[in-house]
Write a structure and sequence with these properties.
4 helices, seven-stranded mixed β-sheet, alpha+beta, Aminopeptidase
């Protein structure tokens, strides 16, 4: 698998990837995403900021995700275990349905965590849809700790956090 920052020329293929994932999740009763989010303009904005990254297998985009230090204001509700750490937020991790069950998400998470550590980040934060057992299992298996929850438009989401290197837990 080859990782790279997405380019504007990747937008059509990325949009198709997310649309395929939405159909696949809907068929499984996971109504996390829709035509409103993540819409093509959200993906285009991620690309324009240089924050969308892709993983290719055989020249095709197999996975995509966005990394940046920005989060919704609702993240203030999280009981973050490392409040003073330099964090990055993982947004919109998506694996193409044709590549699911092949360890692509695990390889993507390995890349994400390693590259963020190299970039000087101390923790990863994210939110995951409470009704997506595949995502919850992926994050929890990797040592992400649930630190809160929030209601977004599509339902209940859990906040997760994981330290990337030898941080000590802040004591109250």
């Amino acid at each position: 698998m080859e990782f790279a920052v997405a380019k504007p020329s990747d937008l059509d293929e990325l949009n198709a990837l997310y649309r395929a994932a939405i159909l696949h999740m809907d068929a499984q009763g996971i109504f996390q995403w829709d035509d409103i989010y993540p819409a093509r303009d959200v993906l285009a904005e991620d690309i324009s900021h240089g924050e969308m990254e892709i993983a290719r297998i055989g020249g095709q985009i197999a996975a995509a995700f966005t990394l940046n230090p920005r989060c919704d204001e609702e993240y203030e509700l999280g009981a973050w275990r490392y409040p003073d750490a330099r964090f990055c937020v993982l947004h919109r991790l998506c694996v193409h349905p044709l590549n699911q069950g092949q360890g692509v998400a695990t390889q993507a998470m390995n890349y994400i965590e390693d590259s963020l550590l190299q970039r000087g980040y101390e923790t990863v934060r994210l939110d995951a849809f409470s009704s997506n057992p595949f995502a919850l299992r992926l994050y929890e298996k990797r040592g992400y700790e649930r630190v809160g929850e929030v209601q977004f438009r599509k339902g209940l989401f859990y906040f997760y956090e994981k330290p990337l290197a030898g941080l000590t837990l802040k004591q109250d």
